[in-house]
Amino acid sequence: MVGYVSSPAVVGGRAVAANPSRHLRRTRLHTAFAATDRQSITTVYAPAGAGKTELVADWIKAIGALSRSVFVDLAACATARWWQAPLRSPSWWPSWPVNVAELAQALHEGIPAQVGGRVIVVLDGTEAVAGTDFLPQVHQFAASEDRLHVVMLGRHAPPDRSPSRLAHSQINALRGRDLAFTAAETATLCVQRGLDLPAAVSRRLYAATEGWAAGLAVATAVLNGEPHEPEGVLQQLLRTGAGLSEYVMRDVLGRHPADLRQAVRDSSVVESVCPDLFAALTGRTDAADVLADLARDDMFATCLDDTSAWYRYHRLWRTALYTTLTEDDPAHTHRLHATAADWYTAHLQPAEGLRHALAAADRSSAIRIVQQHGEQIREATPQAAVTAATPGPWASLANDAPLAHAFAVHRGAGNDTAAPPSTVWHSMTAVRRKAAGPADLIQHSAQPIWHALRQGDYEAAQAALDSDGSATGRSPLQRSTMLRLHAVTARMTGRLRDAVRHADALGEDVRANGLVGSHDGGWARLILAEVAVQRGTPEAAVQHLDALAVQMWQSVPALVAAQQFQAALLCQQRHDYAAALDAVQRLIVDGDDALLVPQWAARVLRIELLVAIGRLYDAHRHWRADAAAVPASTAAITTAKLVLARQPQARIDQLLRPLLHDPRISLFHQVEHRLLMAHQATTTGDPQHATHLLRQAMVLADLEQLRHPFHANHHVLAPTLNHLPSTAITPPAGGPLSPSEISVMRHLAGHRTVHEIAAELHLSPNTVKTHVASIYRKLAVHTRRDAMHAALALDILPTGHIPPNPMPTGT
User: Fold this and answer.
1) Distance of alpha carbon 304 from its chain centroid, rounded?
2) Whole-angstrom Cα distance, residue 232 to residue 238?
3) What range(s) does the HTH luxR-type domain occupy (predicted)?
């Protein structure tokens, strides 16, 4: 259900009003309201235009409670008596009480017995309440009658200074983020409103509005007026903020005094803000309190997390404020950008400082930042330029080599940029060498590592990272770059726990420094989404991809391509091969597959999808052209899939045998190798060996909760999995072994002592002894020999790990 925008938006000179009459019933919100059976109060606090009233009215209608519900418009109560009788109410609603006790008594005596179920009292417009005794009265009112349920709606909660509040378990609370449309709901709404938008445009619409209902109402109304130019219409909306500046200042920020509203507008030159930056831009000494109040119930700003001092403004609202700021006072806007440039540069974020210096038309500051930090800006991963504050080219650019180079660094930050003219290069190099310290030089290793990852050579990337040391003690950009490289490398090898750990650290680092919309913030989200895909949790993957779409806009092509690729993998898991193939084909045709990590991932997925839908000729044709660019282990597994698709009983031993004990292949390939071999064993009449291989695949997959290989290869593995005995996988009696315990287990199979194992694994002997004791406990054994036999029986280790010589029985 889409809320009404009180003032029309102006787009391209035309006034566009939202149409609130066409609702979309969102089951997830109705499910949330179902919890009212267990609470006596439901609160719904969300920004103007979030669809609060429509949501509640639709819910009441859906549950058939129209005859036992009443709406009270608090903003229209002239006497400020919140229990005033509404204009339209059931006959049993009392209109005469003057205090809570009398109202409770009147309802208790006046509600007809034939009114079944709970009576719902909706108090709309709580932002109009000024008195601090309101909430205690509501709590008392709700507790006075078992059949009552109170629903409070408003843009924010009313003031509450009562010493004791109602227990949290008695309140069912929804916030703005709960009411926001998801990306899938946005696509459904577009279809409902007759808009046949490409998936990419629908996702951009969601990202632009962040699912805000009124913003979607405006946007879909405009798009319906220009059905053949969705990209142009959307770009216009994003450049102007949909003409919502007056609406934001009056309806969203209307409860704040004029000077504070102006301060918020001044701070719109930055995408994210902390109290210190807000104070620098506005001169206010109460910045921390102001930001906390703006984030109250997510009314205007959102705190990046519970521990961060940084806040992000709603993108469409911020763009609208910034647009009017630049139109009304361009000189003041330049001064604000110059202040932001100085602040960011002083706080070790030179890429963001450069962007603001250019937006401020401050030539000397921009050149100085590039002279001092140009190499760091290029080689580290800077903040992505925000639509509303992106500087345009200057008329003097062609004749000003230093300024032209500053723009080149800004435009191509994080990528390979063209070298500046030689006359500029020598002077700038001298400045950089003079100012460079050890931390500045560390970024020389970033580009080779990234190149290795793009090629799929994670061994080289890991070796370079291991030799590079820790990411601590560096500037924010350098630290986040190294964390990103660690996270991507761990994900590629299948070390999903490590990938999540590095991605979480990366996200925390980005939020701590206010780098909202930065490349690295996007990579943190992407890696979490990729891990969720590999673990077979599509709901979590979709949540991360939706958040990525909102945070990153469309500013980083590599992340946009990665979003599309992960969406294709989700379709593959759901066995919607046609949709997955269509998405992958678009990536390849557009050339965006070259932006993926690794670059050949889309082409390998295309082969798998073609095989799944039986287009073997096309699969072989494409594979002949693509195989040369794919690493040997991936090529062997993909070729084996093609061979089995054409000849199910074909021998693939020669292709896959070299991978069996190769420690260099990723966990994904270790699992897929055993799955394919198990399939071959099934088709050749050896079910016992097939079960043995499946056990190994599942045990390996359980190390990182890996599930995607089983889903993605289901069309091949179905016969094998259907014949797998229910007792094929018997976990250890004491629980599964941890990755560290399995690593120790592999060394127990030899003649190594505890001290030798500790030295090889870089652990202390006491740690190894602890792992051994835990292994014995979980396997219910007492000797090393018995542990090895138990590991063989459970397929925790492949047979190849068991030495032929007798094993010592000691620990």
Assistant:
1) 12
2) 10
3) 730-795
